Please model this.
Amino acid sequence: MGGWGILNLRFFNNALLAKWWWKIFAGHCWSKIIHFNYLSGGPPGPLFHSPPRNKSFFWAGITPLLPAFRACTSKKILNGASTFFWFDNWLGGRAPKDIWPDLFNNCLTPWTTTRHFYQNSSILASFFHETTMEDLFPIIQSIPECSSSQEDLYIWTLERNCSFSVRSFYKFLVDGGLRTPLYPLFWKVDCPSKVTLFCWLANDNKIPSMSNLAKIGCNFQNATDTCVLCYNNSETVDHLLIHCEFASRIWAFYVNNLHLLTTPISLDQVWITWIPSLEAHRRTFWDLLTRAIFWNIWLERNNRIFNLAFLSTTAILFKTSHMLIDWCSAARDPTLHVSSDSIQSVKRSLDFLSARSADLASNSI
Ligand SMILES: [Zn+2]
Model:
């Protein structure tokens, strides 16, 4: 769920149950009993939208899965007898009802099989309401030959080998086939899970910033949504971690020392466009550094709110650099080796900060 590696048991159970549909469609011997009992010997058409009532526990469990299951299948037509012309994804992986919606709405018998249309192609107009043969020309051209003696083949579109797998269907049920482009690499970076989780939530604007708390009326600790780092702006996620005067000083320090030309503009662009725009060998390093900056700004912000304790920008830079060096020395990625240019620059900047802190301390004496 959300990339945490915890199974959603309801979806996983549905994915396991869907395997029955794959077996039924594959035509195992026992599936003839299912066809006889529940489908009157024909393909499961009207079950698309109206699962039957008063059926067995097993049948009631698997019928609601049919629409999602069929959305993930396409058909290779051989005799056309088990393929619904309008509803099955047989025409270039798409269902004709989605290609010609007007003709579909005019069709008097929507649950017609492709074979039936093939055998009655000369009287095709009789299947439609007020439609000319000219209107039907694209359909006439698309009807495939259904003279084979073999049954149509089901193709599972979510796997390269075209066979059903519980894993692929589970993923489809969880995210509906849609995935954020952030997902593939975001969780594979060598940094503590709590930091990665924080950055994931921040990227989605789901952290309890003052602005977000005020929106839901939960900013009890502070009556306003003012940023506690600069007292100058509303504490939105973008402001707190990127645009705040406090955060800007931290970003500027690293950008100048590591000779980078750009800084992120908004949080939702950090991992989508900003890091990918950097040179390939620097991306993982800047990904880690970004997470370390975000995490330390967040800790400092919490420290000010809950403990009324303040650290300077220099102290945050110390913490961030040490954290980054620790992560890099434990990382498996060879581009993060401690002798790399970027890590050496961070170490030199730490020496500089130490010297400057010592100067300030002696001057104050
Ligand atoms: Zn601020």
User: Anything to note?
Assistant: The two ends are 56 Å apart (CA to CA).
